[in-house]
C-alpha cells in the first residue's frame, strides 16, 4: 500500500518537509517512490505537483493526516472529485 507522507529535510531547528509517495513499510527517511511536493512550516510555503498527486490518489494512495490537511487547503480533493465525475459521465 502506498501513502502520501511527509519526509523531513533541512537542518536542526529549521525543518522542511518533502511530500512523497512511499510504501507504508518504509521508514520516514526511507526510499520514496516519487517526490510530489514540499512544505515549509516556518515560511508557510507549499509546492504541490498536482498531476502526480492526483495519479497516486486515483491509484488508491492514502494521505496521512497532515498531508490530507495540506491537500485539502490547496483544493486537490475538489479537483480529484471533478476528475472522477468527468470519467463517469
Automatic annotation (TrEMBL):
<dbReference type="InterPro" id="IPR020592">
    <property type="entry name" value="Ribosomal_bS16_CS"/>
</dbReference>
<dbReference type="Pfam" id="PF00886">
    <property type="entry name" value="Ribosomal_S16"/>
</dbReference>
<keyword id="KW-0934">Plastid</keyword>
<dbReference type="GO" id="GO:0005739">
    <property type="term" value="C:mitochondrion"/>
</dbReference>
<dbReference type="InterPro" id="IPR023803">
    <property type="entry name" value="Ribosomal_bS16_dom_sf"/>
</dbReference>
<comment type="similarity">
    <text>Belongs to the bacterial ribosomal protein bS16 family.</text>
</comment>
<dbReference type="GO" id="GO:0003735">
    <property type="term" value="F:structural constituent of ribosome"/>
</dbReference>
<keyword id="KW-0150">Chloroplast</keyword>
<keyword id="KW-0689">Ribosomal protein</keyword>
<keyword id="KW-0687">Ribonucleoprotein</keyword>
<dbReference type="InterPro" id="IPR000307">
    <property type="entry name" value="Ribosomal_bS16"/>
</dbReference>
<dbReference type="GO" id="GO:0009507">
    <property type="term" value="C:chloroplast"/>
</dbReference>
<dbReference type="GO" id="GO:0032543">
    <property type="term" value="P:mitochondrial translation"/>
</dbReference>
<dbReference type="GO" id="GO:0015935">
    <property type="term" value="C:small ribosomal subunit"/>
</dbReference>
<protein>
    <recommendedName>
        <fullName>30S ribosomal protein S16, chloroplastic</fullName>
    </recommendedName>
</protein>
Amino acid at each position: 500500500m502506498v501513502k502520501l507522507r511527509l519526509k523531513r529535510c533541512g537542518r536542526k531547528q529549521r525543518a522542511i518537509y518533502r511530500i512523497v509517495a512511499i510504501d507504508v513499510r518504509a521508514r520516514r527517511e526511507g526510499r520514496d517512490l516519487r517526490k510530489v511536493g514540499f512544505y515549509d512550516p516556518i515560511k508557510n510555503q507549499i509546492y504541490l505537483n498536482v498531476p502526480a498527486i492526483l495519479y497516486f490518489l486515483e491509484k488508491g494512495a492514502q494521505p496521512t493526516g497532515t498531508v490530507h490537511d495540506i491537500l485539502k487547503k490547496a483544493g486537490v480533493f475538489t479537483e480529484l472529485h471533478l476528475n472522477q465525475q468527468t470519467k463517469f459521465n
